[in-house]
Amino acid sequence: MARSPLHKLTRLEIANARPTVKPYTLSDGGRLYVLVKPEGAKLWRWNYDFAGKTRTMAFGSWPEVSEKEARAAHAAARELLHQGIDPMQKRREDKRRARFSANATFEAVAKAWIAEQKEHWSANYLDKIERRLSKNVYPWLGKRPIAEITTPEYVEQIIRRARDRGVLDTARRVRETCNCVFRHAVENGLIKSSENPAIDPKVGGVRTPPVQHYAAITDPEALGQLMRVIRSYKGTPIVGPRCSSCRWSFRGRPR
Predict the structure, then answer these.
(1) Which pLDDT band holds residue 53 (cuts at 50, 70, 90)?
(2) Bridge-partner residues for 35, per DSSP?
(3) Which range of residues forms the domain containing residue 250?
(4) Contact criterion met (CB below 8 Å) for 210 and 168
(5) How far is CA 111 from CA 50, 119, 125, in A?
(6) Rounded CA separation 90/70 (Å)
């Protein structure tokens, strides 16, 4: 006899389902079903359509997840789908947020960002990033919840300190590093993109230092004279004499 579309699986039906050579399903309605695997596992699954594709969402295994719990999760996921939200994407976002506490500090987020990125960095670059944060950021904002750091506080505590020391390049690099940390917070749902105080390079007056050009000889005759002087140079005790029969000095550097 055909199963009614309104029929819900009973605990006895699920318990009596025996594994076969191939996996098969037991429908619970609303595209929710139990997938019976050849090895005997019984898994709650739900098929749904989103953005033109059919997707399958897992709700755990039976009996660890009871019929009542699976149906409650199914109902919640269907409500998200009704609102135009992909339930599986929402679950992934919730898991990312769960990695941080509600009061995640700037230092905690920074270290999580470093842990995620350091395999792509050289040891020297990793050391620079960690020293830059330890010296210029952690003492003032490290213990602050990242969601509570405002743009004025960030500028006052971090950017102005570096700028007032006259180290404009350091201020710029600190801003770039902080921007990466705040972006990591955005990606993990801790703050909104609009709440990133380091995203605007003009905030705090941090700009790329002006390029300093050095004098260069452009006259061919003057350049030739310079080259003759260089070639006739015999060296000093500091620089070391140059071997006249080859292109190497005694210190091992090519001419």
Answers:
(1) very high
(2) 25, 43
(3) 215-255
(4) no
(5) 35, 13, 15
(6) 17
Tokens of 14: 């699920």
CA angle at 158 for the pair 153 and 161, rounded to the nearest 5°: 115
Q: What is the pTM of this model?
A: 0.49
2 occurs within a structural domain: no
What confidence score (pLDDT) does residue 247 get? Answer: 44
CA distance 110 to 120: 16
Convert 143-152 to b/e letters by CB count within 10 Å (16 or more is b). Answer: ebbbbebeee
Q: Give me the CATH number covering residue 178.
A: 1.10.150.130
179's tokens: 């921007």
Q: Which residues pair with 26 in a beta bridge?
A: 34
Same domain, 125 and 164: yes
Residue 4 lies in a domain: no
> What local confidence, expressed as pLDDT, does residue 229 receive?
84
